[in-house]
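task queued by scheduler; priority normal; single chain, no ligands, no partner chains; default sampling; output format set to C-alpha coordinates
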Amino acid sequence: MIRHAPQNCAKSAEPKQRRTVTAGCVFSKCRKRWGRKFALIYTDLRNLTVIQGNSILPHSLSLLFQYLASITKSEGRAGGDRVSAALERHAASEIELHRLENPFSEILAPSLSLVGGDLGDYLRLAAPYIHWYGSDLSENRIPKSVADRMPMCELIGPDGMFFEADVRVGLWQQTAHVTYGPRRHAAEETFFILSGEAEWWNEDDGHQRLGAGRQVFHRSNVLHTTITAESPLFAIWRWSGDVGFQTYELTKYKLD
Protein backbone atom coordinates (compact mmCIF):
# COMPACT_ATOMS: atom_id res chain seq x y z
CA MET A 1 0.00 0.00 0.00
CA ILE A 2 1.34 3.45 -0.86
CA ARG A 3 2.04 5.78 2.02
CA HIS A 4 0.56 9.26 2.07
CA ALA A 5 2.77 11.97 0.58
CA PRO A 6 4.34 14.59 2.89
CA GLN A 7 1.97 17.39 3.78
CA ASN A 8 2.18 20.81 2.16
CA CYS A 9 2.29 23.57 4.76
CA ALA A 10 1.04 26.33 2.45
CA LYS A 11 -2.03 28.06 3.90
CA SER A 12 -5.20 28.92 2.01
CA ALA A 13 -6.35 32.49 1.48
CA GLU A 14 -8.09 34.16 4.42
CA PRO A 15 -11.70 32.88 4.48
CA LYS A 16 -14.68 35.18 4.55
CA GLN A 17 -17.32 33.12 6.30
CA ARG A 18 -17.40 30.84 9.30
CA ARG A 19 -19.86 28.59 11.05
CA THR A 20 -19.70 27.28 14.59
CA VAL A 21 -20.29 23.59 15.19
CA THR A 22 -21.31 22.79 18.76
CA ALA A 23 -21.04 19.47 20.51
CA GLY A 24 -24.79 19.35 20.98
CA CYS A 25 -25.36 19.91 17.27
CA VAL A 26 -23.02 17.07 16.30
CA PHE A 27 -24.51 14.65 18.84
CA SER A 28 -28.14 15.35 17.93
CA LYS A 29 -27.49 14.95 14.19
CA CYS A 30 -25.40 11.84 14.84
CA ARG A 31 -28.17 10.30 16.93
CA LYS A 32 -30.87 11.12 14.37
CA ARG A 33 -28.77 9.59 11.60
CA TRP A 34 -27.96 6.29 13.28
CA GLY A 35 -30.73 5.95 15.89
CA ARG A 36 -30.54 2.81 17.98
CA LYS A 37 -28.70 0.84 15.33
CA PHE A 38 -25.35 2.12 16.57
CA ALA A 39 -26.32 3.61 20.00
CA LEU A 40 -23.69 6.29 19.55
CA ILE A 41 -21.51 7.51 22.38
CA TYR A 42 -21.44 11.28 22.89
CA THR A 43 -18.12 12.91 22.04
CA ASP A 44 -17.63 16.46 23.37
CA LEU A 45 -16.42 18.73 20.54
CA ARG A 46 -16.32 21.79 22.84
CA ASN A 47 -17.74 24.33 20.38
CA LEU A 48 -15.09 23.80 17.71
CA THR A 49 -15.20 26.36 14.89
CA VAL A 50 -14.84 25.60 11.20
CA ILE A 51 -14.16 28.26 8.60
CA GLN A 52 -15.61 27.48 5.18
CA GLY A 53 -12.85 26.78 2.67
CA ASN A 54 -10.17 26.32 5.31
CA SER A 55 -9.91 24.79 8.76
CA ILE A 56 -8.75 26.42 11.99
CA LEU A 57 -9.01 23.04 13.71
CA PRO A 58 -5.79 21.06 14.28
CA HIS A 59 -6.24 19.74 10.72
CA SER A 60 -8.84 19.37 7.97
CA LEU A 61 -9.95 15.90 9.08
CA SER A 62 -10.49 16.72 12.77
CA LEU A 63 -14.29 16.91 12.70
CA LEU A 64 -14.52 13.76 10.59
CA PHE A 65 -12.24 11.90 13.01
CA GLN A 66 -14.36 13.00 15.98
CA TYR A 67 -17.52 11.73 14.30
CA LEU A 68 -15.94 8.44 13.24
CA ALA A 69 -14.66 7.97 16.81
CA SER A 70 -18.27 8.09 18.04
CA ILE A 71 -19.39 5.53 15.47
CA THR A 72 -16.56 3.05 16.10
CA LYS A 73 -16.95 3.43 19.88
CA SER A 74 -20.62 2.43 19.57
CA GLU A 75 -19.63 -1.01 18.25
CA GLY A 76 -19.11 -2.25 21.80
CA ARG A 77 -16.03 -4.37 21.07
CA ALA A 78 -12.47 -3.89 22.31
CA GLY A 79 -11.23 -3.46 18.74
CA GLY A 80 -13.74 -0.69 18.10
CA ASP A 81 -12.69 1.01 21.33
CA ARG A 82 -9.03 0.98 20.27
CA VAL A 83 -9.88 2.45 16.88
CA SER A 84 -12.08 5.10 18.51
CA ALA A 85 -9.24 6.10 20.86
CA ALA A 86 -6.84 6.40 17.91
CA LEU A 87 -9.31 8.63 16.04
CA GLU A 88 -9.74 10.85 19.10
CA ARG A 89 -5.97 11.12 19.51
CA HIS A 90 -5.29 12.04 15.90
CA ALA A 91 -8.23 14.44 15.71
CA ALA A 92 -6.07 16.64 17.94
CA SER A 93 -2.80 16.14 16.02
CA GLU A 94 -1.19 19.44 15.05
CA ILE A 95 -0.63 18.95 11.32
CA GLU A 96 -1.59 20.91 8.24
CA LEU A 97 -2.93 18.91 5.30
CA HIS A 98 -2.97 19.93 1.66
CA ARG A 99 -5.39 19.08 -1.14
CA LEU A 100 -4.52 15.98 -3.13
CA GLU A 101 -5.27 14.67 -6.60
CA ASN A 102 -8.05 12.08 -6.44
CA PRO A 103 -8.30 9.73 -9.44
CA PHE A 104 -11.52 8.29 -8.00
CA SER A 105 -13.40 11.55 -7.40
CA GLU A 106 -16.09 10.86 -10.02
CA ILE A 107 -16.61 7.29 -8.80
CA LEU A 108 -16.89 8.37 -5.16
CA ALA A 109 -19.13 11.42 -5.71
CA PRO A 110 -22.49 9.57 -5.86
CA SER A 111 -21.77 7.68 -2.62
CA LEU A 112 -20.59 10.80 -0.79
CA SER A 113 -23.68 12.73 -1.90
CA LEU A 114 -25.96 10.14 -0.26
CA VAL A 115 -24.45 10.58 3.22
CA GLY A 116 -26.56 13.19 4.97
CA GLY A 117 -26.35 15.37 8.07
CA ASP A 118 -23.15 16.50 9.73
CA LEU A 119 -21.33 13.31 8.78
CA GLY A 120 -21.98 14.02 5.10
CA ASP A 121 -20.74 17.59 5.55
CA TYR A 122 -17.56 16.42 7.28
CA LEU A 123 -16.89 13.77 4.63
CA ARG A 124 -17.23 16.26 1.79
CA LEU A 125 -15.07 18.79 3.67
CA ALA A 126 -12.37 16.18 4.27
CA ALA A 127 -12.47 14.32 0.92
CA PRO A 128 -10.07 16.64 -1.00
CA TYR A 129 -7.41 16.15 1.71
CA ILE A 130 -7.66 12.35 1.79
CA HIS A 131 -5.30 9.99 -0.03
CA TRP A 132 -7.58 7.71 -2.09
CA TYR A 133 -6.33 4.67 -4.01
CA GLY A 134 -7.46 1.27 -5.29
CA SER A 135 -7.81 -1.54 -2.74
CA ASP A 136 -4.61 -3.39 -3.60
CA LEU A 137 -3.55 -4.05 0.04
CA SER A 138 0.11 -3.82 -1.11
CA GLU A 139 2.07 -6.23 -3.30
CA ASN A 140 -0.92 -6.64 -5.66
CA ARG A 141 -2.79 -8.92 -3.26
CA ILE A 142 -5.96 -7.80 -5.05
CA PRO A 143 -5.83 -7.69 -8.89
CA LYS A 144 -5.83 -4.16 -10.30
CA SER A 145 -9.08 -4.74 -12.19
CA VAL A 146 -10.79 -5.39 -8.85
CA ALA A 147 -8.83 -2.85 -6.80
CA ASP A 148 -9.82 0.01 -9.09
CA ARG A 149 -13.49 -0.88 -8.60
CA MET A 150 -13.02 -0.47 -4.84
CA PRO A 151 -11.47 2.92 -4.00
CA MET A 152 -10.43 3.28 -0.38
CA CYS A 153 -8.30 5.20 2.07
CA GLU A 154 -6.49 4.29 5.26
CA LEU A 155 -6.90 7.28 7.55
CA ILE A 156 -5.04 5.80 10.52
CA GLY A 157 -2.83 2.72 10.63
CA PRO A 158 0.57 1.28 9.72
CA ASP A 159 0.13 2.61 6.15
CA GLY A 160 -2.26 5.43 6.99
CA MET A 161 -2.18 9.19 6.74
CA PHE A 162 -1.71 9.14 10.54
CA PHE A 163 0.45 6.34 11.97
CA GLU A 164 -0.75 3.68 14.42
CA ALA A 165 0.91 0.27 14.58
CA ASP A 166 -1.96 -1.84 15.95
CA VAL A 167 -5.17 -0.66 14.24
CA ARG A 168 -6.36 0.41 10.81
CA VAL A 169 -9.39 2.55 10.00
CA GLY A 170 -10.51 4.19 6.78
CA LEU A 171 -13.23 4.61 4.16
CA TRP A 172 -14.08 2.17 1.38
CA GLN A 173 -16.36 1.97 -1.63
CA GLN A 174 -17.34 -1.15 -3.56
CA THR A 175 -18.81 -0.10 -6.89
CA ALA A 176 -21.91 -1.71 -8.39
CA HIS A 177 -21.87 -5.26 -9.79
CA VAL A 178 -18.79 -6.52 -7.95
CA THR A 179 -18.48 -9.83 -6.09
CA TYR A 180 -15.60 -9.43 -3.64
CA GLY A 181 -14.68 -12.75 -2.08
CA PRO A 182 -14.69 -15.16 -0.46
CA ARG A 183 -11.71 -13.63 1.36
CA ARG A 184 -10.14 -13.90 4.80
CA HIS A 185 -7.49 -12.25 6.99
CA ALA A 186 -6.18 -12.51 10.54
CA ALA A 187 -7.45 -9.07 11.57
CA GLU A 188 -10.95 -8.77 12.97
CA GLU A 189 -12.97 -6.33 10.90
CA THR A 190 -16.09 -4.20 11.13
CA PHE A 191 -17.81 -2.25 8.36
CA PHE A 192 -20.15 0.64 9.23
CA ILE A 193 -22.31 1.21 6.15
CA LEU A 194 -22.81 4.88 5.24
CA SER A 195 -24.64 4.59 1.90
CA GLY A 196 -25.79 1.97 -0.56
CA GLU A 197 -26.31 -1.70 0.23
CA ALA A 198 -24.83 -5.11 -0.48
CA GLU A 199 -25.36 -8.79 0.10
CA TRP A 200 -22.99 -9.95 2.82
CA TRP A 201 -22.02 -13.57 3.46
CA ASN A 202 -19.73 -15.12 6.07
CA GLU A 203 -19.22 -18.58 7.55
CA ASP A 204 -20.86 -17.61 10.84
CA ASP A 205 -23.99 -15.71 9.79
CA GLY A 206 -24.77 -16.84 6.26
CA HIS A 207 -26.34 -14.35 3.82
CA GLN A 208 -27.68 -10.90 4.78
CA ARG A 209 -28.66 -7.88 2.68
CA LEU A 210 -27.62 -4.80 4.64
CA GLY A 211 -27.56 -1.08 3.88
CA ALA A 212 -26.94 2.35 5.38
CA GLY A 213 -26.96 2.53 9.17
CA ARG A 214 -25.98 -1.11 9.69
CA GLN A 215 -22.70 -2.66 10.73
CA VAL A 216 -21.07 -5.95 9.70
CA PHE A 217 -18.52 -7.75 11.90
CA HIS A 218 -16.04 -10.39 10.71
CA ARG A 219 -14.05 -12.32 13.29
CA SER A 220 -10.43 -13.23 12.66
CA ASN A 221 -9.90 -15.59 9.70
CA VAL A 222 -13.60 -16.03 8.87
CA LEU A 223 -14.36 -16.42 5.15
CA HIS A 224 -16.57 -13.57 3.94
CA THR A 225 -17.95 -12.09 0.71
CA THR A 226 -19.52 -8.77 -0.28
CA ILE A 227 -21.74 -8.56 -3.39
CA THR A 228 -23.07 -5.29 -4.82
CA ALA A 229 -25.92 -5.12 -7.33
CA GLU A 230 -27.26 -1.90 -8.86
CA SER A 231 -25.88 0.50 -6.23
CA PRO A 232 -22.37 1.03 -4.88
CA LEU A 233 -21.59 0.49 -1.21
CA PHE A 234 -19.76 3.09 0.89
CA ALA A 235 -18.56 2.31 4.41
CA ILE A 236 -16.16 2.95 7.25
CA TRP A 237 -13.87 -0.04 7.79
CA ARG A 238 -11.72 -0.86 10.78
CA TRP A 239 -9.20 -3.61 11.57
CA SER A 240 -7.75 -4.66 14.92
CA GLY A 241 -5.69 -7.58 16.21
CA ASP A 242 -3.16 -8.85 13.67
CA VAL A 243 -3.46 -6.01 11.16
CA GLY A 244 -0.68 -7.15 8.81
CA PHE A 245 -1.60 -7.82 5.19
CA GLN A 246 0.50 -11.00 5.01
CA THR A 247 -2.44 -13.22 6.05
CA TYR A 248 -4.92 -11.72 3.55
CA GLU A 249 -6.30 -14.24 1.03
CA LEU A 250 -8.73 -13.54 -1.82
CA THR A 251 -10.03 -16.82 -3.24
CA LYS A 252 -12.59 -15.52 -5.74
CA TYR A 253 -13.98 -12.37 -7.34
CA LYS A 254 -16.33 -11.38 -10.16
CA LEU A 255 -16.85 -8.15 -12.11
CA ASP A 256 -20.05 -7.59 -14.12
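post-processing summary
- The helical segments are 23-34, 62-73, 78-91, 105-113, 117-126, 144-147.
- Residues 13 and 54 are 8 Å apart (CA to CA).
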